[in-house]
Design a protein that fits this description.
Strand order of the largest sheet: 2-3-6-5
Number of strands: 25
Number of helices: 4
Helix content: 10-25%
Structural class: alpha+beta
Radius of gyration: 24 Å
Order of helices and strands: EEEEEEEEEEEHHHEEEEEEEEEEEEEEH
Largest sheet: 4 strands, antiparallel
Distance between the termini: 44 Å
Length: 423
């Protein structure tokens, strides 16, 4: 097969084009590119003069170090490949976290409550920064003037520092207020019919109180948070690699940990005045998805009730009930072991201390399954009969893009018959 890489065809204006590489692999070829190249999809064509770029139907995910990789088979026809950026209008202050599977959990240090499991997460937008005290005040002032009630007013060392001293209930209500202020549909309700927006009181809501298809602001699920924090990397302790230093995050250095470069003690740049010793949001380099402070500064509230082990599967929302909500990321008063990407924190939802903060996420339009359908995630599997040797079902590896499927068979009277007169 003649195989060529057509990189120029995939260039997106204003966005760095990742390098697409090729190497022989058994009876085919391995195509690989940096795993932090969010939003880029592999496409192929057989004719550059009149190209018809489509995802290659024989592409199968492969493992190649920390790279994103696909294998393709040999073919008698020449093929050209490119990485094409999926153009999506991203809300201000947010980054697109691409859909896909990842290994959630601690595969490095074997934290007992973070056993690795495969998880598929649909695409979503994540705030590039923690919610600052200045941003908090804007929606908070709107909220209290529109009938919202809060347990705490929140605190920030400065308007560009993360808001702290806010409990889980207040954060969820604030997300609703920010949504309404922006003309978006709120996410959290006190009823399963989504008619009563959650604005007051400390209510231990369940997944049934969440309009997961709404376009408003909300907390990330624990799975969404970890996928976003890893920034496209796999099997690393931190969002950037396996070691940490105080030039990369705001935490308490402790070089007794072999992966902590230090120095020992509070980060001297921010150890000033009185606690909390937070840092301005965005003070350190971002991860591969363009997100800041995914390790240290303040712990981040997540939607989920805490449960161990956590569920894998597709877009998990956590346990149905519990006593503690999940906190992730670690804070300015934590040592390196607590700011690892796989480390899980937990606290009662009424807790409001100077260590807790949050960031918002939003749904990508069209990302929710249509009514009566479920998402079948992208991935590879063995199609065929591996047990009884049926001659017409010889096993072979197949890769399928994500799609939606009816949860039920088509019903004759309700669905099939009404369509017949139009055929």
């Amino acid at each position: 097969m003649c195989l060529m890489l057509a990189l120029l065809g995939g260039v997106h204006s204003g966005r760095a084009q990742p390098a697409l590489n090729i190497a022989p692999a058994n009876n085919g070829w391995l195509l690989y590119w940096p795993s932090n190249a969010a939003g880029f999809n592999l496409q192929s064509t057989t004719n550059l003069a009149s190209p018809d770029w489509e995802p290659p139907t024989d592409a199968v995910p492969a493992t190649y170090g920390s790279q994103t990789a696909m294998t393709v088979t040999n073919s008698s026809r020449a093929r050209f490949f490119r990485l094409q950026y999926q153009t999506v209008t991203t809300p201000d202050g947010m980054a697109l976290i691409p859909a896909g599977s990842f290994l959630m959990g601690d595969s490095v240090d074997n934290t007992f409550s973070a056993a690795p499991t495969n998880v598929y997460v649909s695409a979503f937008y994540a705030g590039t920064n923690l919610v600052s005290y200045g941003v908090w005040q804007q929606a908070y002032n709107y909220a209290v003037s529109h009938g919202y009630g809060f347990d705490d007013a929140g605190y920030g060392k400065a308007t560009n520092h993360p808001v702290t001293a806010i409990n889980w209930y207040d954060v969820v209500k604030w997300c609703n207020a920010r949504s309404q202020q922006a003309g978006l549909t709120p996410v959290y309700y006190t009823d399963a019919g989504f008619t009563q927006v959650y604005t007051n009181g400390d209510i231990d809501m369940t997944n049934a109180n969440v309009n997961w298809s709404a376009n408003g602001y909300r907390l990330p699920t624990e799975a969404e948070w970890e996928k976003a924090a890893r920034g496209g990397l796999a099997g690393q302790r931190f969002p950037w690699g396996d070691t940490i230093s105080e030039s990369q995050a705001n935490y308490i250095g402790q070089t007794a940990f072999p992966y902590d470069v230090g120095p020992t003690g509070y980060n001297p740049t921010y150890y000033t005045g009185s606690p909390p010793f937070t840092s301005p949001v965005g003070s350190f380099a971002p991860n591969g998805y363009g997100l800041f402070d995914m390790a240290g500064n303040v712990d981040e509230w997540c939607w989920d009730w805490y449960g161990a082990p956590y569920a894998g599967g597709s877009d998990p929302h956590g346990p149905a009930s519990g006593t503690s909500r999940v906190l992730r990321g670690g804070d300015w008063d934590d040592t390196a072991d607590d700011v690892r990407t796989g480390y899980r924190g937990l606290i009662g939802p009424s807790s409001a201390l100077s260590y807790w903060g949050f960031r918002c996420v939003r749904n990508v339009p069209g990302g929710a399954p249509p009514s009566g359908m479920v998402l079948i995630p992208a991935g590879s599997f063995t199609i065929g009969d591996t047990l009884d040797g049926i001659s017409s079902a010889i096993p072979t590896n197949v890769y399928l893009s994500a799609f939606f499927m009816d949860t039920n068979l088509v019903r004759f009277h309700e669905q099939w018959s009404p369509v017949l007169p139009t055929l």
